[in-house]
């Protein structure tokens, strides 16, 4: 086959799939948490910089969106899928597979931080600060969101970065540890499942070609 023929076939595939699938409901969005107030807690007054539940209620969240926390090292960002952990305002006894610490272990106060969190799992996602032994969270530095499917995960997020904290491998680790990325819960892109590496490569190549040919069609996957 000539290159032109291949391009023609791909173009037809794009047109067919674009016609068959519905228009994408949204674009990917970056949500700045608390808008201009950022992610802050005043320890003198025990108050948050804004009402984060209200803020969360004003937004629509989808897979592939990012939360941008503009904050300082006086606060932490904990991302959990576990309601018990969220309600407890504590990561004590939490499991490393459902709770991620984005900026634990700070030793210097008042350092400006921007923390970027991708949304990779559909459904309830919970966020809180566990600083000050949970006092910040208990006084409202916490919110929950519901993540919709939206456009589905973009290829760039299909292998999300590993969580910050992990169980160290046990002493009997004769076999290599198996880690399961947080995004692989069946809510992401069905073409990019575990064990489908050939498909992944094919899809990535196709995606790159499509980007070159027709610009971003969004809905093809
Ligand atoms: C959203 O944030 C991500 C991660 O920092 C970045 O790669 C992307 O360019 C941002 N998108 C927009 C529209 O600002
Ligand atoms: C905390 O609140 C007190 C009382 O309103 C105020 O004086 C102080 O400047 C606030 N601290 C910060 C860091 O905003
Ligand atoms: C924050 O807003 C929610 C509604 O979005 C309300 O139920 C709650 O009482 C507010 N919290 C404070 C401390 O005002
Ligand atoms: C950050 O925390 C430190 C230690 O508790 C405190 O001295 C400082 O005032 C805090 N900064 C702000 C802006 O609240
Ligand atoms: C709740 O947090 C406390 C520490 O604040 C911890 O001792 C306890 O084990 C936690 N409980 C659960 C169910 O996570
Ligand atoms: C949530 O975390 C608690 C510990 O904080 C744990 O006991 C419980 O099994 C977890 N729930 C799920 C659904 O994993
Ligand atoms: C975390 O692991 C527990 C078993 O250890 C499992 O029940 C739970 O579904 C896992 N949670 C996630 C989000 O993978
Ligand atoms: C803040 O709230 C905690 C309880 O959550 C309380 O122990 C502490 O005294 C309060 N601090 C101020 C300044 O009100």
Written account of the structure:
The chain is α+β, with helices and mostly antiparallel strands and 221 residues long. The protein is 24% helix and 19% strand. It is built from five helices and ten strands. The strands form three sheets. Strands 4-10-9-6-7 form a five-stranded mixed sheet. The longest helix is centred in the first third of the chain and has 18 residues, at 3-20. It is globular, with a radius of gyration of 21 Å. It starts with a helix and ends in a 7-residue tail after the last helix. Bound molecules: 2-acetamido-2-deoxy-beta-D-glucopyranose (8 copies). One 2-acetamido-2-deoxy-beta-D-glucopyranose is lined by residues 43, 74, 109-110.
- How is the biggest beta sheet arranged? 5 strands, mixed
Mean pLDDT: 74
Into which percent range does the helicity of residues fall? 10-25%
Rounded to the nearest angstrom, the distance between the terminal CA atoms is 25 Å
Question: What is the molecular shape?
Answer: globular
The value of Rg in angstroms is 21 Å
- Elements, N to C (H/E): HEEEHEEEHEEEHEH
Bound molecules: 2-acetamido-2-deoxy-beta-D-glucopyranose
Task: Give the strand content.
Answer: 15-25%
Strand order of the largest sheet: 4-10-9-6-7
Q: Give the uncertain stretches in residue-range form.
A: 3-23, 173-221
Please state the structural category.
Answer: alpha+beta
Give me the count of strands.
10
Number of helices: 5
